[in-house]
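**Reference record**
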Amino acid sequence: MAKKKSAKKRNLGVYSSGLEKHCAEILRANNIKFEYENKYVLIEGFDYPSTYFKSVPKQKSMVDKTNRRSLPITYKPDFVLPHHNIVIETKGFVRANDSFPLRWKLFMRYLLESGQGHYRLFIPRNQAQINEIINFIKDDTTKT
């Protein structure tokens, strides 16, 4: 099995993929301000008050997780453009068992419940679709 190349070896800088890097570069080239990977807490962490045992890898017996805090569920969209009320989540390939679809739905629900349901959401899969978003933004700003 081939090892996955790190972002630094692929010359991506802080970005996780070539699509993210392209998106950031084209946003900058068009003087569109953005925030990168801001963390949103979708569901707060909590303490479960009763007994909790769980199977873990490489253990025959279940492990006692009683009195251990369950961590929050968080989400970091790739790009938030607050001046344009836009969120861009670049996604090339999504595996069938990936947590992304569930987190995305929770994120949309978070936006609705926090009064931010006016944000327009985009999930481009390629550079051409990112270019479409840029054209959408340019067209939208000429209308206002």
In short: The radius of gyration is 19 Å. Strands lie at 35-36, 40-43, 46-47, 53-54, 63-64, 69-70, 73-75, 79-81, 86-88, 120-122.
